[in-house]
């Protein structure tokens, strides 16, 4: 008889299939994993990140035209005032071409101004004399016209510095590439003290020598129209001469030379030649130009020269206006040597005062 075969034990539970889940391994004893194979540990959900925008339109194909190169090139740091024209764009021909352009443009504008004056004379009926240094019969109108013509030098030299030398026009003003107004105001105060003291010494010296110093009073009717024209135009006329003779000439030579003295000398000589003084008057104007050139280099700008030039001219023209002799305002000729004593006092007081204050204020003398 066939014996019954042993069957599965019901108490043992369902049959276990062999497989990798029961294979011996790191879990000794062959205990089955209750929930299948191991799962990677849950990672925290990704945090929302803020959009990080790169530079605008970054990539191999940027939007818009490329940035344009700057036309005017500033001077390198540590440059002295007389060397401000020697930038990286300097070429030997630039100062020469700019000088010729300024001369030609000024002559052309002077002729054009003369034609305009002739037309104005015809329209308004103001007579013209056209003799000597006078153009109009009215001395106040004539003074205003001549001061205005000289003032045309100011935009010409500023434009030439930008166009021909490719440098900031403000480099003609100072090493700060602009006119330092606070420093200019202080220089004006020093100039007022120096001019008043110089005029007082000159008057005493002339009277001691028996020479009339020319102090008279013609009345407000004569004085007011003249002083208005003087106050309005003399600052521009004086500044234009400083920008031309101390700014343009000194920096023009400074583009070639390391020492400022030849440029100061040439600028003073050109300044004296442009005036009609004779004898001791030439000495006075030349000495004035030398002092102004030296102060421009020493203080790093034209503020001190402009201050003394403006103050001196306003006082000089004002004395003539007060006397009522405006017909001789532009006349230049012989100057008595006694007048040079007052001029020496003026120069000494102004030069020493400016240098002392510039040192106390730590005035910038080199470009940055």
In brief, what are we looking at here?
The protein is mainly alpha-helical.
What report would you give on this structure?
This protein has helices at residues 94-124, 139-151, 153-163, 181-208, 220-254, 261-273, 280-299, 303-323, 339-361, and strands at residues 128-131, 134-136. It has nine helices and two strands. A two-stranded antiparallel ribbon has the order 1-2. With 368 residues, it is mostly helical. A hairpin with a 2-residue loop joins strand 1 and strand 2.
On the 0 to 100 scale, the average pLDDT is: 86
User: Any idea what the radius of gyration is?
Assistant: 42 Å
What share of the residues lie within helices? Answer: 40-55%
Strand order of the largest sheet: 1-2
Largest sheet: 2 strands, antiparallel
Which stretches are poorly predicted, pLDDT < 50 over at least 5 residues? 17-34
The CA-CA distance between the termini, in Å, is 121 Å
Our count of helices gives 9
Number of strands: 2
Structural class: mainly alpha
How do the helices and strands line up, and which of them pair or pack?
Layout: H1 94-124, E1 128-131, E2 134-136, H2 139-151, H3 153-163, H4 181-208, H5 220-254, H6 261-273, H7 280-299, H8 303-323, H9 339-361
Antiparallel strand pairs: 1-2
Characteristics:
single chain; mainly alpha; two-stranded antiparallel ribbon; 9 helices; 2 strands; 53% helix; globular
